[in-house]
Amino acid sequence: QARTCELEERNVQLARAHKRVQDELDVASALQLAILPARFPALPGIDIHARMRPAREMGGDFYDLFVLDERRTGLVVADVAGKGVPAAFFMAICRTELQAAAQHGRPPAEVLEAVNRMLVRQNPLELFVTTFYGIFDHGNGEFVYANGGHNPPLIVSATGEARWLPTTGGMALGMFDGLPFEQRTVTIDPGDTLLLYTDGVTEAFDPQGNEYGEEKLVAELQQAAGDSAKQLIDRLFAS
Predict the structure, then answer these.
(1) Is the pLDDT of residue 19 over 70?
(2) Which of 14, 75, 87, 229 is an S-S bond match for 49, by CB 3.0 to 4.6 Å?
(3) Short-list 74, 44, 25, CA closest to 196
(4) Whole-angstrom distance, CA of residue 66 vs CA of residue 50
C-alpha cells in the first residue's frame, strides 16, 4: 500500500512539473509570435500581409518589415534549421542582428554578409539560417535583394503569369565566415504580387503523405491573381 501511494505521489509531481513546462512553453510561444510584426505600416500603393504558424510550440521561421526611408522598405523572411526552443532563440538573435545591419539602408548583400559574420562568431549550437532580404522602392518599383540559401520568392502578375525571382547563389547564414553574397535587381510592376515564404509551405504533407510542392504553390498563386494580400495568405493556409 505504501509503495502504491509513493508511486501515485510521484505521478502527481511529474504531472505538475509537465504542466509547468508546458505553461512556460505556451508563454514563450506567445512571446515569440508577439515579436513578429502584427500590423504593417500604411505605405502608398502597397498591400502587405504575413502569417506564421509554428509546427510545434516554438519554431525558427520569421519574417520582418521595416521602413528605411520615405521611399524604401526592407522585407525579410528566414528559416532557422531545426525546431523547438533552440531554433526559437536563434531566430530572435538573427532577427535582431538583421534589423541592426539593415539600418541606414545598407545594400542587401552587405546586410547578409554582416549578419553572417556575427552569427559564425557567436553560434555555440552551430545552427544556421536561410535568409532572404530585399529592399523595395515603392517610388519606381525597383526591388533589390540578396538570398542566403532560402526558397526563391515568386512574382505573379495581374494576369496570373508566375515567375521565380532569379537566384543570387548565396549560402545559409551562420555556416562559414567570410562568405560573399551577391544581389540582384528586378522591377515589380503595378498589379504584381510578390510572395516570400519558407519550406513550411512547400514541404507540408497531407494525411496521405503527398508533399504540397512548388507546382501547387504556383497554381494557387495564379488562381489568386487580383486577391488582396490577406486573401492570398488565407487561401494558401487553407490549401
Answers:
(1) no
(2) 229
(3) 74
(4) 13
